[in-house]
Amino acid sequence: MDKHQKISIIGPGVMGEALVSRLLSNQLTEPENIIAAGPRQDRLDELADRYQIMTTLNNAEAVQQADVVILSIKPQKLPQVFEDLQNQLPQSALVISILAGTPLNALIAGLKHSSVVRAMPNTPAQVGEGMTVWMQSQQTSEAQHALADKILSALGQAIFVEDEAYIDMATAVSGTGPAYVFLFLESMIDAGVHLGLPRRIAEEMVIQTIKGSIDYYAQSSSHPARLRNQVTSPGGTSATALYYLEKMGFRTAISRAIWAAFTRSQELGKGQMHQDPEKI
Both 221 and 117 in a single domain? Predict the structure, then answer.
């Protein structure tokens, strides 16, 4: 990646800031080559003070000299951004969208631009431990592919796929995944407090248990079921706890939750903004 390439970030929210932070901390570019555009001057001033990047309230102005344009807005803001950026993007620019549920063909048509990447990162990207699944339009060049991979890999691990259906699947598994983990973590901490542990100690115990278990699995060649069996003695505490998790439908709840998130991602892609959750 050329450090002199200009990067425009449309949408300076949490993920927009994560991109700025990781690009700079990985020394992929310099602050003067990044410009962030958004509707709130106070937020733009905050980012300018923190990272010394350029900012503007005008989306069209932000992309005039851009080599890369990153869309990190909320999906409901997309029609306005389409209007702002049509006929404003440099022909050679690469557009990277991290919007959930917005298909590649809709991005290409709305922007009237052919070199587009659709990516689904997740929130651990803020600390460089994200999981991003991404794909590209047919018109994206080899150089642009390498550029996108460099940018997205700065957020953590990046996986390139050729089937767009995998993006909606990734939205349900890894994109939404941190929410499942945080809920599980919260539940374990609260259970520890209910037993009588001070919250600080319960938090430390649960965080290290989850982190250690993940690291152990990552370094092992064993299936998760085998690792689970290693800590499940007949008639022991683990066996008793697992019995109740299975009895309460733990696996089924997770599976149905991920399927519901996948379905919702597809609905968003079709423009169905409201859906009765009881019908999912």
Answer: no
**Domain range enclosing 12:** 7-167
Q: Residues 14, 17, 23, 25: what is their CA dihedral angle, to the nearest 10 degrees?
A: -100
Contact indicator for 191, 148 with CB cutoff of 8 Å:
no
The DSSP result for 237-257, as a single string, is HHHHHHHHHHHTTHHHHHHHH
- pTM score over 0.70: yes
pLDDT digits (tens, 9 = 90+) for 31-62: 999 999 999 999 999 999 999 999 999 999 99
Task: Give, in order, the Cα–Cα distances in Å from 17 to each of 11, 47, 259.
Answer: 9, 8, 30
What's the half-sphere exposure (Cβ side, CA atoms, 13 Å) at 231? 10
Instruction: Find out whether 132 and 154 touch, Cβ atoms under 8 Å.
Output: no
Residues 155 and 191 in one domain: no
Number of independent structural domains in the chain: 2
